[in-house]
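Input/output pair, single chain:
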Amino acid sequence: MKNLFLRFSATFTLTVSPASQLVGLQGGSVNYSVTITGGNGFTNSVSLSVSGLSAGATAGFTPPSVSGSGGSTLSVTASNGTPQGVYTLTIMGVGGGYTNMATATLAVLAPLFTGVALAGTNLVFSGIGGYPGSNYGYYVLAGTNLAVPPVNWTVVATGAFDQNGSFVFTNGWEPNSGQQFYLLQLQ
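Output:
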């Protein structure tokens, strides 16, 4: 009887979560978790890189490499010059003579108001530029002073983009309430 020996190569897997992120323009940023799982005694260092970024977007890993098994955070930032769109990011890990990849989606949005109408005592706002037919949505913030940071404004509405990336929301209006400013913020 012959002895049969099987040898399994020490390698790794690479996973990314979440599978999809949404970022607005003007310096918005998001993070992805990248996990390296070594198998069969894999202890090599895995260097990480990303491709598929749009113009004006930057990315970086913290840490930029993982030894054996571990995690890294991929941070992606969009600038004012990043074109609106949906991008497929390819995250690649190279180490120990192996290369593994995973993909994630980055949606860069620049929703904007296209109309406002008075309907009785309500203001009806409409706009375009959202992520079509998704679970991504928006907050509408209201404030009376542009010098106050938006983080201190009041959330007056929430909603989701429709199948075309459009949105409509209604907000009560009092004629004697004074000047009010509105800001759309992505969820």
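The chain has two domains: 11-109, 112-186. The CA atoms of residues 12 and 38 lie 4 Å apart.
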